[in-house]
Amino acid sequence: MRHECFDSRSFPPEVSIVIPCRNYARFLPGCLGSISAQGMDLSKVEIIVADDASTDGSADLARQLLEPMPLAAWAVLELPRQGRPGPVRNAGLARARGRALLTLDPDDELLPDFLPRSLEALCAGVDVAYADYVLEEGGARSVVRLRAYHKLLLANQNILPPTALFVRELWDRGARFRAATAYEDWDFWIQLALLGARFVHVDEPLYLYRMHGGNFSLQARLDDGPSKARIVLDNARFFPSWTIAWARGVLSGAPDHMGRGLIPVLREHAGR
């Protein structure tokens, strides 16, 4: 693993942002520019770009863009090929020193109030802050409004976006992105819930989420049933017994009658 980390200005940083990257150099200027445009002092921000063996010059471009930014610290990690974003995020988070942590995909961008509003929510006493977002797909943009947190909702479907700010204590207590499921972020949020995290929905679109053919989330849909089943079995304390039986059945070859991205939490839906 090759990395660079420059002198700090403020430690520990208020927030560390981990950007997992695989051949997304074309998006890096917009992504990092959106962090520069945040309404807060960048000397309180650390950025770690974790590069998954890119072949398009992503790592070198990241260094060029990060060096002039007045950050608390920055690093570029050049990793051996991982093949999926979860382990890449973990490598970056393992290096992060911020009091709050955020993973941000390089093809997405933060709107100017994302960090101030999210940090304000954490300061009010919660552990995870997630916001509505602007979806860009097929050249069109629309606002996606999310629902307030409830355990049963999260058990049924991923009600959080990929980008949410959380306190580092949750990482220190062992939460990790797992490679066993293609729905890595959903699994991660459930891990945080099992650690007792308090979630808050910030009712405002605060970042830009780009949907395109290269998204890992699109590829994940091909492995929908087994990926949902792995979430259930790896977080069994979060689910009722009939959902666990459903998950075992799916992994044994039983048909999944739920729609894409849905896990049964009601007995009649699980068929048990």
From TrEMBL:
**Family matches, as Pfam families:** Glycos_transf_2 (PF00535)
Q: Which domain of life is it from?
A: Bacteria
Q: Name one GO molecular function term.
A: transferase activity
Q: Which residues form the Glycosyltransferase 2-like domain?
A: 16-148
Annotated protein name in UniProt: Glycosyl transferase family 2
Checking Gene3D superfamilies in the record gives:
Spore Coat Polysaccharide Biosynthesis Protein SpsA, Chain A
Answer whether the UniProt record assigns the keyword Transferase to this protein. yes
Keyword set, alphabetical order: Transferase
